[in-house]
Amino acid sequence: MGEERERREAGSQYMKLGECSRGGGQSSISTILLIVSFILVVLVALNMLLFYKLYALERAAHTLETWHSYSVADSPLPQTAGEWAQVLQLQRQFHQAQLSKWQQILQSSVSLLDQMKQSLEKLHRGIVVPEGHQEPPTDTLTESLTEA
User: Fold this and answer.
1) Which of 10, 69, 120, 133 is the most exposed place for a label (fewest CB within 10 A)?
2) Are 95 and 101 in contact (CB under 8 A)?
3) Going residue by residue through the chain (148 aa), what tens digit of pLDDT does each one get?
4) So where are the chain's domains?
5) What are the record keywords, sorted (predicted)?
6) Neighbouring residues of 84: CB distance < 8 A, sequence distance ≥ 6
7) Do 48 and 56 meet the contact criterion of CB atoms below 8 Å apart?
8) N- to C-terminal Cα distance for the chain?
């Protein structure tokens, strides 16, 4: 009888331990589910934001396309040689303006590259000491002892 009672008490202790671990497990599972749910909500919100940006970009492209079609439809083609000469003159001026912009950009790029090259050469000279100018390290303690 005593042994049977001890078995029941031991079994009830195991059940209590199992219940505690299951309760803790459910708490950790609910925490994990909460975190995953939060991440999913954030991802859905970001996805909606990306779709809105894509919609705005497509709308802007469509608007630009319609403006371009209106501008082409509104301006009649030149009919006389004088009108064609005027169009060609405007295109030359535009081309020259674009060409001068690109030349300025290239000149500034070349000057920046030259500055970078000079800076790198100075850095290289500072790091690499020529072998002829290297002096062996002197120990001042041994020199002072030999003089005394």
Assistant:
1) 133
2) no
3) 566 666 666 555 544 444 444 556 788 999 999 999 999 999 999 999 999 999 998 988 888 777 776 665 566 788 899 989 998 999 999 999 999 999 999 999 999 999 999 999 999 888 886 665 555 555 554 454 455 4
4) 1-73, 83-124
5) Membrane, Transmembrane, Transmembrane helix
6) 78
7) no
8) 101
